Amino acid sequence: MGHAENKCEVRFAKETDDGAAKNSSKSREDWGRIWKIHAPPKAKHFLWRICKECLPTRMRLRSRHVQCPLDCPLCLAEPEDDWHIFFNYESIIEAWCAMGIDHILHPRLSECQSIRDFIFHTCCHDNKQLAGKMALLLWTIWQNRNNMVWNDNKQHARQIGMQAAQAWNEWAMIHGLLEEQQQPMSLKQQTATIAQQHDGPTVYHWHPPYPGYLKCNVGASFYNAAGRKGGEWCLRDHRGRFILAGTYLINGRLNTLEGEAMALKEAICEVKQRGTARKMTYYLSSLHQWKRYQM
Known about the structure:
By secondary structure, this protein is α+β, with helices and mostly antiparallel strands. The protein has two domains: 17-193, no CATH class; 214-294. The chain has helices at 2-34, 41-51, 58-63, 82-88, 93-99, 105-109, 115-125, 128-151, 157-174, 182-196, 256-274; strands at residues 214-223, 228-236, 242-251, 279-284, 289-294. α2 packs across α8, α5 (93-99) packs parallel to α9 (157-174) and α9 packs antiparallel against α10 (182-196). The radius of gyration is 25 Å and the shape is globular. The relative contact order is 0.08.
């Protein structure tokens, strides 16, 4: 009898060890897939932080004895945890729609027990590009949340999705994952959708700089078929009078922000060389921000 019990114990221990080994192997495989998705390193690392439960949501901070409010800083209506900020907050579904990946939400939100399950499921069962878009969207949503906490400024959910889509498309183009003609079409379609929801067309006005400053508008151009990138810049004074303009063309790959930065550099060098002005304001469309520069 004792011999039989020993054999049963040995068999049970072996089965337990085999099961643990399989689970460990499966877990390593799931974690490994996070690093193989098509996304910038910051987005992959952000997924890792979420899955390791390192994201400092207010509920997590309170569970670790940090004195802070529980309410979500964006809606001020519900406690803030991972699931709420990425899936349940107000109209956040519009961000997923603008990114073009809302189809992965509905079947999985009911199946997955946690956001880590959701991330692992997406990384394991969808293609690397879709998983990469998801990662960058989650990162962008969190940046918007932080911007509200620290700067009291937040974007509409659809703007978040469009921003994430543009960032992923630019990254994909640089890494040869997206053809040049694909990227603008996707963004045009999303912009058209936004425009249709407004009462009238959006009108952009040129605003003059302060007296004594020049305003520099810059832009970037892409010619992937020829493997070249370019940019353009234009200077006007506080009365709107044309002062100077220029263009450049180089070989290689640049994203929109880098292309505009190169154009700005060309403008600054030209102004310094000519001694046209000592102060300049400039606008980077990819950052949607005005900056001042003093030479």
